[in-house]
Amino acid sequence: MDFIKDNLAWFGLAVFSGGMFLWQTWQARGGSAGVSPMQATLMINREDAVVVDVREAAEYVGGHIPNSRHIPLSQFDKRLPELEKFRERAIIVNCASGNRSSSACGALRRAGFAKVFNLSGGISAWDQAGLPVTKK
Hints:
By secondary structure, the protein is an alpha/beta fold. The longest helix is centred in the first third of the chain and has 22 residues, at 8-29. Helix content is 49%, strand content 12%. The chain is elongated, with a radius of gyration of 18 Å. It has a 5-stranded parallel β-sheet with strand order 1-5-4-2-3. Strand 4, helix 6 and strand 5 form a beta-alpha-beta unit. The protein folds into 2 domains: 1-30; 31-128, Oxidized Rhodanese, domain 1 (3-Layer(aba) Sandwich), CATH 3.40.250.10.
């Protein structure tokens, strides 16, 4: 106990940094590790990340990230095996705003996918960043 009193600042720093590490780990386990549109672009270009769009069909045909794979959240559990071949690659999940994609990220993590990221702000943030959207 004397050690803690004599080194209170260091002890506080250790507790704080440990708490921050646990918080980030807990958030990532829940599927909420978010990436900005610019970070996502870098991951797509440098790491060949896979983009999965979990919006419904009508939303997807209205405009989506080029080369994204469309798996609506309502069918996600049933169609999860389609992503098995990408298990070792980074997977970026998007929806309209980031809420539905967070649920899909959690499902991917529970299925054992390690590199799962939620596009922060969804397709709205992607579009606002001036990044390409296609209707093909």
